[in-house]
Amino acid sequence: METLRVGVAKPDPPFNGMPDDGGLDIDLMHALGDKIGATVEFVPYDGADFDGIFDGLGSSYDCVAAGTTVTPEREKKATFLPPYVISGQALAVDTRRLPRVASIDDLEGLTIGVQRGNTSQPIAERLVDEGKARAVRLYDYGSVRDALTDLSTGECDVFMKLAPVLTELVKSVAGVEVVQRGLTAEDIAIAVPLGDQALLGRLTVAQAELEADGTLQQMRRKWLGNPFADQSLAVH
Question: What is the pLDDT of residues 183-212, one digit of tens each?
């Protein structure tokens, strides 16, 4: 049987890294593998900059499923399936330390934490350029839990990341809450190597079948609490 190697970056709950190594991306890729008659093998990416995950396409793995947002720059490195989720950036803060912070309009003089290569990085940098925040602090991709702890110690003031992931991660950090969602609307999709039209076509058809028969809606309800593809304004 064919093996489909899937690049994943952890921790990124609820897309992956949930208890028993579950998550939306894990369930989706197993279902897609069943549809195309392939065994799925997950290949961890442990680089400091998330954008480096695309460098392994076609060599280390056949596709990437890592809660991945589609951007023009990434489309130069990969081809994307239609989105299986639409989500948006969110903002987290230790509300005990900074009770006045409720949105990006309250960041004057504060430092915004983001992960290297994450789509939150240019948003945070723009806020600094506009004088709405003091600075951006970059964290290696795998250091997100350290970043959330820093919100309580004062090493960082607020943290920005996609809402489903940030909502899940703050559950284990006392005092830290998501205070704003829907900062953006971003397509999240599986990436395949540029020019691999055969794999793109097979996975696209399989994903459409999972959407049509309700399987994808069930997965989104299970992992995101909302069955709809557009989660950009979802509140948990």
Answer: 999 999 999 999 999 999 999 999 999 999
Per-residue HEC secondary structure of the chain comes to CEEEEEEEECCECCCECEHHHECHHHHHHHHHHHHHCEEEEEEEECCCCHHHHHHHECCCECEECCCCECCCCHHHCEEECCCCEEECEEEEEECCCCCCCCCHHHCCCCEEEEECCCCHHHHHHHHHHCCCCCEEEEECHHHHHHHHHHHHHCCCCEEEEEHHHHHHHHHHCCCEEEEECCCCCEEECCEEECCCHHHHHHHHHHHHHHHHCCHHHHHHHHHHCCCCCECCCCCC
Q: Is the pTM of this model over 0.90?
A: yes
From the list 132, 2, 22, 1, the residue with the least C-alpha distance to 10 is: 22
What digits encode the pLDDT tens for the residues 45-91?
999 999 999 999 999 999 999 999 999 999 999 999 999 999 999 99
Residue 213: count other Cβ atoms within 10 Å of its Cβ: 10
Which residues lie closer than 8 Å to 224 by C-beta, 6 or more apart? 14, 24, 85, 164, 231, 234
Tell me the sheet residues that pair with 39. 3
CA-CA distance, 187 to 230, in Å (whole number)? Answer: 9
- Structural contact between residues 78 and 191, judged by C-beta atoms closer than 8 angstroms: yes
What is the rounded average pLDDT for all residues in the chain? 95
Q: Are 39 and 4 in contact (CB under 8 A)?
A: yes
